[in-house]
Amino acid sequence: MTDPLVTIEGLTVAFNGVAALRGIDLAIGRGEAVGLVGESGCGKSVTWLAALGLLPATAAVAGRVRIEGEDLLGASPAVLERVRGGRIAMIFQDPASALNPVHSLGRQVSEALALHRGMRGAGARAEARRLFDLVGIPDAGRRLDSYPHEMSGGQNQRVMIAMALAGQPELLVADEPTTALDATIQAQILDLLRRLRAELGMALVLISHDLGVVAEMCDRVGVMYAGRIVEEAPSDALFAAPSHPYTQGLLAALPSMTGPRRRLSAIPGGVPEPWAMPPGCAFAPRCPHAGAACDAAVPALRHVGQDHAAACVQAVAREMVAA
Amino acid sequence: MSVSAPPLLELTGVSRLYSSRSLLGRASAVRAVDDVSLAVASGRTLGVVGESGCGKSTTGRLALGIETPSSGNVRFAGAPMPPPGTASWRTLRARMQLVPQDPLGALDRRLPLAAQIAEPLDIHGIGTKADRRDRVAALLRDVGLRPDHAARHAHELSGGQRQRAVLARALATDPALLVCDEPVSALDVSIQAQIVNMLTDLQEARGIAILFISHDLKVVRQMSHEIAVMYLGRVVERGDPEAILGDPLHPYSRALVSAIPVPGPRRRERIVLSGDPPNPANRPTGCAFHPRCPVATARCAAETPALREAADGRLVACHLVEPTRLAA
To answer: Model ipTM?
Structure first.
C-alpha cells in the first residue's frame, strides 16, 4: 500500500494487568473501506478506542498509532482534539445514548461545526442543514429543531453520521452502526455509508460482528480473535477461501439463505478468558486442526496468498506445500 | 410433511388492542396484533419474523395465554386457553414455556442454577426431592452443561451457557410447546449455531412444538417448518420457508429478504425501502405497508388486503400478487 492514512503498530491494551489487545498491526489507506469482524470481547472496538485515546486512564495502552506520520498515542490533548472528529470521526451502535437528550439536534451538529470548523450562527445552521440533507433526513430544516426522542433509531443514526461528517473527516470509524436497527433500516444506513464514501472519498473502518455486512461494505477485512488479528485479506478472497480455521468456523456456523438446510457446524466451546489464555494459538482449544505445533508459540500473521495473511501454523504450512 | 396433524396451538383471528393516551389526554386504541391466525403442531416449528413493533412478541405472549386477546381465540391442545392467573392456566403453564432473549435478565442472580432449574418442578409439585435432583442433573446434561454448573450463579457463566440454563429450566416440566422470543439474537455467531442445533435436537427427541420469534431470517429459515411474516400487527405472508424466503410474493417480504447481508456474491438487487416502519398508534389506511411499498397503487391506500392462498399453498396479503400466482 502506498503511504497509508492511518498506521497501527504493535498496539496492546491491558485492563488491570489483564491483556485485552495483544498486538494489533493494521494500516488503513486513503479512501479505503476496512472491516474488522469478530465476536464479543475480541478487541475490535477496543482497538479504535485505544487508537483515539478514548479509553479510561486505567487502561494500559502501548504500541504506535500514526495518522500520516503524526503520532496519536501519548499525543497532547490539543493534538488529539484536532484529530478526533476532525480527521478521524467515530460513530457507535446506540445513537440514542450518544446524543444529548436535552439539546436540539441542530445545536449538537452546530457544536461539532464550531469545534472543528470554527463556524457560528447562521453559517453553522446552514451547514448543519446541508449535512442533514446529505445524510437523507427528510424535512431537514425543521428537523434541526427536533430532539433525539422525537426521532426513530434509524434517523438518530443519520444524525450521528451528520455530526461525524461535520469535521470533514478523512476516516470514519463505524462501530456496529446498524446492529441495533431493524433489517430494512440497516439496509438504508449501509446504503447511505456506501454513497457518502463514494461522494466524499472518505476511508471507512467498519467494526461488526456480522460477516455479511462487512463482506458487502469493505474492500479488505481483518478477522479478530482474542485480542489479535488472525486473518487479513481482500474481502472477496476472505469469503471465497478463508484460510484461518476460526474464519472457516465462523462462516460455517452461519445459517445459509439458499440451498438445502444442513445442521450448522458450530464451533465447540467458547472464547478463552483473557486471564487464562492458552500458551500458543488462542484458538487451538476449539480448532479441529490443532496439533502440537499450535501450543508452542503464538503464531504470527504470515503470507498465505495475494495480500492474504493468516496467523495459523497449519495454514502457512499448507501454503508452503502448495507453493 | 404432516399437514394433517392437528395443531397443538391454534390462534384464530386474534387481535390485541392497547389503549393509549396522548399528551392532550385523547384516548386511542393501538392494535398491536390484528386478526392473526396461526397454528403449530407437535414436533414442528413456526417461525414468526418481522421488525420492531410488528407484534411478534405480543403474538408469543398471546400464545402462552399471558395476554388475553381482545377478539379471536387461542386454543391449546384442542381446548380454549384459560384466562391468565387462574388455577387451570397455571397448571397448563407447565406444558408451555417461554425462552426469552436475555438470559441474564431471566435468571436470578442470587440463586445457584440447580435451584432455578428445579423451580418449575417445585411450583408444579412434580416429583420428590431426590427425583428433582436427578431431573436437574439430567436437564443439565441435555442442554450441554456440566454437573458442576449446578452450583454456579448466572454471572459466572458465558452468554451461551446462560441461554442453555434458561432452556434447561424451560424444559424441566417437559413442555409440549416452547415459545422462543429471539433466543439467539444476543449470542455470537459460533455460540448461536450451538444453541440452534441444540433446539433442533431437543425438538426431535421430545416432539416439542416451537413458536420461534426472530428478526433474523437466516436463523428462522434454519429452524422453521413454516414461517409467518408480520408487518404492523398483521401476517402479510405465511407458508413454506423455502417458498417465502426463496421467492417472496409480498413486497415487504421481498424487501426483508433482500436486506439480509450475505457473505459472498449477491444473488439479487437490494430493495431499499424509504422511511421507517409506521407507528402502530398511527396506522396507515388500507394496507399498512403502502406508504413504504415500491409498487403500491391507489387501491392499497383504500382497502386492507386479506390473506389469499397462492398456487403453491402459501398465504399472502397483497392486492398486487399476479393472478397467475394465486390458487385457482
So the answer is: 0.86
